[in-house]
Amino acid sequence: MSVKMEISFSKSAKLSGGLAILLKTAEADSAAGAETVDPAGVIAKAARIARFSAKSMGALDIVAPEGAPVDRIVVIGLGKVAELTAHDWLKAGGAAASRIKNTDKAAVFIDVPGLETSARAAADFALGMLLRAYSFDTYKTKKGDEEEKPAKSVKVTIVTADPGGAKKFVLCDALWYCNDRFKPQFMINLATLTGAIVVALGNVHAGLFSNDDQLSAQLTAAGLSSNEKLWRMPLGRDYDKLIDSKFADMKNTGGRQAGSITAAHFLKRFVQETPWAHLDIAGTAMGSPQDEINQSWGSGFGVRLLDELVRAHYES
């Protein structure tokens, strides 16, 4: 049976049954997330008995761990930190996916003590999981009485200190591709990108970041009409400098201060001169207040806003 991975990134995971996958390097005293997943210290004892040394892509599988909030723990080795390559993150994702068997949910902890886990590494790990789970069997010859079984759905939460970082990498690739391939008149992206925008605006307004005043005015007006309100946030050279790096072209975070603004500047570097707007909908799309037309945890924020924008300005 094929498996459909529904992958999300989060700073934490509420554990109740299911599978927990923890990464560990050869040098680390404990695995990522061990304090949350293994309060009774079962992993250390099992590792001694199984002589698990966390060599690259090695695995320690523990069923029904005592005192743990999950049904099963799998520890996957990354080997020595100095020998860890970018491709190893893909392989680790594949190794993790191969361990997902009879479960419908899994939490994966990737922030190993003593190892800096970049947003690119988190994104590559997720890609490795997807590649391992993918099965191209559309044209596979089937026997006459063989029924086509639906893909099994597994919800996977990748727990990392910077869950927005991986989203930014995927989004900037999409912006560059769209701009380069289609040469659009303007671009608008919506993303539940940062927790910082929730701190700034709560769940009343979404953050609007743009390099174009006319597009910003049109979006703001559309939001007022559809009652999906936007608040324009600043962009500027002083904020942009916060993501400069001494060692690379840029870094994907400018630190705790002005987090939603530096995240927007990271995206802005991939749109060139094309008019562009970024709507950070982290506070309004998820956990939004219930009202007469929204009784769901997910509000669908932005759909009516964009429909109003097109209706008001781009339909004859």
Task: Please give a handful of descriptors for the protein shown.
316 residues, alpha/beta, Leucine Aminopeptidase, subunit E, domain 1, Aminopeptidase, 6-stranded mixed sheet, 11 helices, 10 strands, 35% helix
Task: Provide a concise account of the structure shown.
This protein is 35% helix and 18% strand. By secondary structure, the chain is an alpha/beta fold. Helix 3 packs across helix 4 and helix 5 (163-182) packs parallel to helix 9 (259-268).
What is the number of beta strands? 10
What form results from the Cα inertia axes? globular
Could you spell the SSE succession in H and E letters? Answer: EEHHEEHEHEHEHEHEHHEHH
Number of helices: 11
CATH superfamily of the largest domain: Leucine Aminopeptidase, subunit E, domain 1
pLDDT under 50 segments (min length 5)? none
Q: What is the first-to-last residue Cα distance?
A: 49 Å
Look at the structure and give the CATH class of the largest domain. Answer: Alpha Beta
Helix content: 25-40%
Radius of gyration: 22 Å
Q: What is the fold named in CATH at topology level of the largest domain?
A: Leucine Aminopeptidase, subunit E, domain 1
Taking the sheet with the most strands, its summary is: 6 strands, mixed
Q: In the CATH hierarchy, what is the architecture of the largest domain at level 2?
A: 3-Layer(aba) Sandwich
